[in-house]
Write the structure tokens for this entry.
Amino acid sequence: MREVRHAQILNILGQEGYVKVDSLSERLGVSKVTIRSDLEYLERLGKLRRVRGGATCVEGTHVLLPYSVREGLLSTEKMQLGSRAVQLIESGDTILLDASSTVHALARELRRRTDLTHVTVITNAMPVTQELLQCPHVQLICTGGIGHAANDCFVGPLTEETLRTFRANKAFISPTSILLTSGLVDSDLFSASIRKIMIEIADQLIVLCDHSKLDVANPFPIAPLDRVTTFVTDRPLPDKWAHTFERQGTAVLLSTSPGPTASRSP
């Protein structure tokens, strides 16, 4: 019976990408205590990763989780990435902020940067819009478009057309994942399209990427690795990544090591 239940849990997780303890308890007709025990056991086997209130797929596979779920994953790392990346913003900049939960953390830090003036922010992300709407040192431009509930953002032809009317100094992007061979990739076709345009209209591409996003395959390409100007991450990179970025002149910043503003090497 236990083995059957474990198979059911993994089947649901494979289809939905995220499971809640409460929901599994109701669907499988067992107590929440039993479900928590099941999740602990399956995590020890490497079959899933427990998060607050439920579980997600293990690293190496990626599905489009709801924004509210993603925002709670690796929240400390995202806060650190946002804090480090915000140091790259200067007064007078026009910047693009994507609809990732990591870049939302950057928006929170930007709201606190009262030393800045006349920063123009262009975004398709509803959480970023809400974060910066009343921020006196930010001129906010929200693209509008078709609402994408899972990503809490706007996508589609109207969003793309609006973006193409602008030019920005810097684009701050946090893709679903990143590969040495394919570069920045996404799990969602609509978001990939928006990020592509943001990168096209920006002079600099600044990527925020925690360790869990490295070497994870996803189907929709965004941009090659050599397009990245600055790479902000939370852990020292494996040698193969460090050598690649050094060879192509990409600046690498560690979120745990505050330092001066970085730019692409000559």
Observations:
- Confidence is low (pLDDT under 50) at residues 260-266.
- Residues 72-254 form a domain with the Rossmann fold fold (CATH 3.40.50.1360).
- Residues 140 and 162 are 14 Å apart (CA to CA).
- The chain is about 40% helix and 25% strand.
